[in-house]
């Protein structure tokens, strides 16, 4: 009996993909560091981090729940894509993921309200925290299901490095300054390219489930050109085949699908 409960707890933890929380924590720390060498409010910095991680967990659980059909059709999952595999393998009921997502969402909202009260700029803090939590939900959840309609990579590219770093910065300074924009802009572009790259193994399953991701759209338009050129896995590949930016394709890749 104890072993059974332990297995359930372990699977529930795996369902939340805790390893992926590391990126959010790092980006949040970058935002706090960009606020200056001194930490005006260390308690608020810690509370903001817990809030961000709670919103991330909400997103992870909701992803597995709302993406479970595509994940079940995905025969080439990786450590970074294809979900946690807990639901497709039948180790937990799908309802467990939804309950966990709603629970962590409630925790994130509650913590965000405390952050707003303690923030040096409640209005700005409400805007960044509210929009980030909302986007984290509608990324894969209702009513927008952004990741099904080609907006997942764009939202993820902003939300993971941009929204988390901006939250850390605003909670400490109460302002938006050029320095934080300079810090997060390259990170957002890198995250965008990475999200498309890690989505490639999911394309077949996504198409079968009726999802339209930028990776799938780009691949269907032959925008990737050649798999040996991973730097093309970006938006430029898509606009190239729409005649906007002429990017050369090496001759040895020309005959590849």
From TrEMBL:
Keywords from the named record: Membrane, Menaquinone biosynthesis, Transferase, Transmembrane, Transmembrane helix
GO terms (molecular function) for this protein are:
prenyltransferase activity
According to UniProt, this protein's pathway is: Quinol/quinone metabolism; menaquinone biosynthesis
**Gene Ontology cellular component list:** membrane
In what way does this protein cross or attach to the membrane? Multi-pass membrane protein
Query: Could you tell me the superkingdom of the organism this chain comes from?
Result: Bacteria
Q: Where in the cell is it found?
A: Membrane
Q: What is its main location?
A: membrane
Database matches in InterPro entries: UbiA_prenyltransferase (IPR000537), UbiA_sf (IPR044878), UBIAD1 (IPR026046)
Protein name per Swiss-Prot or TrEMBL: UbiA prenyltransferase
**Source organism of the structure:** Chloroflexus aggregans (strain MD-66 / DSM 9485)
Lineage of origin = Bacteria, Bacillati, Chloroflexota, Chloroflexia, Chloroflexales
């Amino acid at each position: 009996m104890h072993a059974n409960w332990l297995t359930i707890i372990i699977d529930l933890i795996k369902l939340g993909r805790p390893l992926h929380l590391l990126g959010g924590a790092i980006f949040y720390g970058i935002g706090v560091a960009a606020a200056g060498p001194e930490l005006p409010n260390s308690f608020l910095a810690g509370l903001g981090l817990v809030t961000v991680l709670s919103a991330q967990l909400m997103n992870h659980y909701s992803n597995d729940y709302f993406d479970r059909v595509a994940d079940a059709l995905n025969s080439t999952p990786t450590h970074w894509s294809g979900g946690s595999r807990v639901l497709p393998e039948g180790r937990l009921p799908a309802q467990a993921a939804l309950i966990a997502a709603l629970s962590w969402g409630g925790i994130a909202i509650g913590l965000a309200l405390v952050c707003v009260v303690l923030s040096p700029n409640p209005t700005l803090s409400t805007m960044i925290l509210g929009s980030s939590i909302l986007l984290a939900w509608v990324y894969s959840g209702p009513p927008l299901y952004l990741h099904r309609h080609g907006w997942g990579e764009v939202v993820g590219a902003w939300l993971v490095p941009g929204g988390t770093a901006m939250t850390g910065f605003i909670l400490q300074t109460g302002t938006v300054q050029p320095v934080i924009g300079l810090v997060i802009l390259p990170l957002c572009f890198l995250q965008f390219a990475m999200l498309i790259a890690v989505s490639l193994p999911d394309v077949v399953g996504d198409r079968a489930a009726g999802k339209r991701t930028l990776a799938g759209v780009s691949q269907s338009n032959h925008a990737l050109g050649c798999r040996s050129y991973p730097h093309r896995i970006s938006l430029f590949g898509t606009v190239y085949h729409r005649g906007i930016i002429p990017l050369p394709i090496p001759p040895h890749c020309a005959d590849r699908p």
